[in-house]
Design a protein that fits this description.
Elements: H1 13-25, H2 33-45, E1 49-53, H3 56-66, E2 74-77, H4 84-91, E3 95-98, E4 121-127, H5 136-145, E5 149-153, E6 161-162, E7 165-166, E8 173-177, E9 190-194, H6 197-206, H7 231-242, H8 244-262, E10 269-270, E11 278-279, E12 285-289, H9 296-305, H10 321-327, H11 335-343, E13 344-347, H12 355-376
Parallel strand pairs: 2-3, 2-4, 4-5, 5-8
Antiparallel strand pairs: 1-9, 6-7, 6-11, 8-9, 10-12, 12-13
Bound molecules: pyridoxal-5'-phosphate.
Pyridoxal-5'-phosphate (PLP) binds at residues 55-57, 81-82, 84-85, 127, 153, 155-156, 177, 179, 190.
């Protein structure tokens, strides 16, 4: 039986050599590599500053701090995201205010933002979900009208563009993540980008225990954190970033195959859409199971037995226990997000999958869906 994981990092001899070369220097943290990675990343994104961090979540936390979000503030964001985008708002004592999503892109629906803005609203934290950019034109207009900051969770959308401009460059700060299932990896790791020198300097200090630029090692000007990216991870980031174009092309090819194969089964599945003006970089490939009577979680179990790993990407954040307890959210509060959460299935997506693999995976998927729908009749 062939086994298909849901994700797998693409690691080459060049990646290995880069990491080993750091081991040989014996300088495993705060060496030259993280600065080199930051410079290369900023250049690639066309921004002035990049600040490497130990995870995407750490980057989002620093973005909130550097943008001055604090207790009593409200930040508008998406319920259809990985939990850390909303959590980062809570870390600084502010309140995440959710806006339901667009049924085609699964991104925050700009038409539903304005009604959530009040005098406490400080920022909009957009999440470019699955590698597809949010509709930034109306969001930017609203931000301007109400003097709100835009912060971008671009953790799933590296190299994606909206009207030709890369995600992560629209707001005061943009954050990327390099966990091993992302389009590029450093093991754990992340990067915050900005054109604002102050934001950069705050993040660069806070990630390093609040040390200011010319401080002695044991001086700590501010309440900081250890959110540093180590040298081994940075070295991996450098070689991964070098081939990001190739890696995204490969993901696009695989997504194209899936879409082509799924086209004749659009009675069963809603394949992902790419909005006009967007380029998509396919963090995951998610289909929605149309037949509401089919238990999606049972489907996942059954596919697992055939060797195919799939995942329910993503649960809606407001329905997590913690959010229900704290804010009293309930089912039905954000119906579009919930419907996507209930019906979504991420298929294996990693470099190395062939057209035949995609065909095999979709074939098995159809068999298992048919089995479940027969059982319901
Ligand atoms: C991966 C991810 C993050 C950050 O993840 P880390 O595991 O902390 O690197 C944040 N937001 C979204 C939407 C993500 O997918």
């Amino acid at each position: 039986m062939k086994a298909y994981p849901i994700a797998r990092p693409y690691l080459t001899a060049e990646d290995k050599a880069g990491v080993i070369s750091v081991l040989d220097t014996h300088q495993l943290s705060l060496g030259p590599k993280y600065r080199e990675f930051e410079k290369l990343f900023a250049k690639k994104m066309g921004v002035k500053y990049a600040c490497s961090v130990s995870s995407g979540t750490a980057g989002l936390h620093l973005a909130m701090l550097a943008c001055g979000i604090c207790v009593g503030d409200e930040v508008i964001t998406s319920p259809f995201s990985f939990v850390s985008s909303a959590n980062a708002i809570l870390y600084v004592g502010a309140k995440p205010v959710f806006v339901d999503v667009d049924p085609m892109t699964y991104n925050m629906d700009p038409a539903k933002i304005e009604e959530k803005i009040n005098e406490k609203t400080k920022a909009i934290l957009v999440v470019h979900i699955f590698g597809q950019p949010c509709d930034m034109a109306p969001i930017s207009r609203l931000a301007k009208k109400y003097k709100l900051l835009i912060i971008e969770d671009a953790c799933e959308s590296i190299a994606a563009t909206y009207r030709g401009r890369p995600t992560g460059t629209f707001g005061k700060a943009g954050v990327f993540a390099f966990y091993p299932n992302k389009q590029m990896t450093t093991g754990e790791g992340g990067m915050l980008i900005t054109n604002n020198r102050k934001v950069y300097e705050i993040c660069d200090s806070l990630k390093n225990q609040g040390r200011a630029k010319n401080d002695q090692w044991l001086d700590h000007r501010d309440l900081g954190y250890n959110y540093r990216l180590d040298e081994l991870s940075a070295a991996l980031g450098i070689t991964q970033l070098k081939k990001i174009g190739f890696m995204i092309d490969q993901r696009r090819k695989i997504a194209g195959w899936y879409k082509e194969i799924l086209e004749s089964h659009n009675d069963m599945f809603q394949a992902p859409n790419t909005a006009v003006g967007n380029t998509h970089t396919w963090f995951v490939f998610v289909v929605l199971i149309k037949d509401k009577k089919i238990g999606r979680n049972l489907l996942i179990e059954n596919l697992k037995k055939t060797g195919i790993a799939t995942k329910p990407y993503l649960p809606s954040i407001h329905l997590f226990d913690f959010y229900r307890r704290r804010f009293g959210y309930k089912k039905g509060d954000f119906p579009i997000s919930e419907r996507i959460s209930d019906r979504s299935l991420a298929l294996p997506m990693y470099i190395g999958l062939t057209y035949d693999d995609c065909k095999y995976i979709v074939g098995k998927l159809i068999i298992e869906v048919n089995k479940l729908s027969k059982r319901n009749k």
